[in-house]
Amino acid sequence: MDGNVVMSAYKFADPGYWYTATKDNKNVSLIFNQSTAFMYVVNQTSIAYPMTRQVPTPIGDYYHRAMINDHGTLQQFVHRKENGSGWTVVWEPENIKAEPCLPFNICGVYGFCTSIDNTTINCTCLPGYSPRDPSIPSKGCYPATAIDFCAPNSSASNFSLEEIENADFPNGDFADMARITPVDVEACGKAIMDDCFAVAGVLVESVCYKKRTPLLNARRSFPSTSNIVAFIKIPKANNNPPIQDKDDDSPSWIALLAGLLLCSTMTLLFATITICHHPLAQPYISQKQLPVPKPVDINLKAFSFQELLQATNGLRNKLGRGAFGTVYSGVLTLAAEEVEIAVKKLEKVIEHGEKEFLTEVQVIGLTHHKNLVRLVGFCNEKNHRLLVYELMKNEGNELILIDWVLCSVRAGNLLAIVSHDSEVLEDFCRFERMVLVGLWCLCPNPALRPSMNKVTQMLEGTSEIDVPPSIEAYLF
């Protein structure tokens, strides 16, 4: 360690938004002196950095505590033991006290921190972005329009540039792609628009800083951001370059054939519905009874449909949708313990499909692997078919690995990742194809993920595979 006490944002390699500047000292410690109630940084022989300057006395008449609040500020408090009315702040960093938007990532990725009175903070989204959770603005934001800024058919005309007065995106050298000097407002804006890798920029005096994604620490804080002009590139909603498929240039007769098939299918469907609802057909239909649920020969709990409705708040907490049904989140009490679950509600269930459903339940229930979510139970009640899994949250190192592999692919450095594996190198083309398909399937935006038919074609080599779009914006 360098002996410097630093506060920095979790998960981000920033230089720190507060530090004691004691890096020339060795073996430093942050101490609370119980005799004086002062906090300070000490080295082996003396006080290297005093923090608390004054506390109420006598010391024994007060409770003392120090904590980092939800805005990222280290504070020391006192509370009178008798007739105390609450905790009172006796110390906090002077720079943060003067400008509460200084802590990094206080409003999340693509969030914008403002403080009109330099006492309270307000988290909003940068132009072109939407809140991840409107009820908790500090969770950050995501792009309102998904687009690859450097797509082959993209140009500056696909974007607009918005200026934000007295604002900045400080994130150290990591965020700065390039610095251009000397320039004015017009020249800085043009430099950002002409560079597809630049999603934003700031003009400080006559120096233009081009910024890469993701945008962190966006803030308007006086006086530190006074006279700084920030720029942000916003995709035009009606002029986005679409993600092209290989079959886009197919002959018009294919579209005609698809139209005829669609019309035929709709006609057959309409005729079937009409016959089923005709009064003469009702006696024959009513004679058919729904299959009686059968037991499953494995240790799985059979839930009632009403239980799962209550656990998922009436199937309102939707996680996603697949080809065979919709997945909802919920909470169940199992063995006197609350467990978060994911409930998959199967759709298009037909009467003779009960056997196939029970077979699927048995196969999944007997499958155990560390990379597969565990099947907790099922529901086979009347025409309701549901599978209940443990809920696996998308947190951890997988986000870092996906980002690292994608960056290597886009930079043409995929070979360097597996240079030590001779078996992979023998069939590198096949490995590269599988990596690209995997990245497409892991894209956080469901609209960009390929269908299983498309995945099969890409793996077989009958369909071309483009480089996946940049997904840094979705990983935070």
Automatic annotation (TrEMBL):
It is an enzyme of class 2 (transferase). Its EC number is 2.7.11.1. GO terms for biological process: recognition of pollen. It is a single-pass type I membrane protein. Gene3D superfamilies: Phosphorylase Kinase, domain 1 (3.30.200.20), Transferase(Phosphotransferase) domain 1 (1.10.510.10). PANTHER family: G-TYPE LECTIN S-RECEPTOR-LIKE SERINE/THREONINE-PROTEIN KINASE SD2-5, RECEPTOR-LIKE SERINE_THREONINE-PROTEIN KINASE. The chain crosses the membrane at residues 253-276. This is non-specific serine/threonine protein kinase. Residues 313-476 form the Protein kinase domain. GO terms for molecular function: ATP binding; protein serine/threonine kinase activity. The lineage of its organism: Eukaryota, Viridiplantae, Streptophyta, Embryophyta, Tracheophyta. It comes from the Eukaryota. It is found in: Membrane.
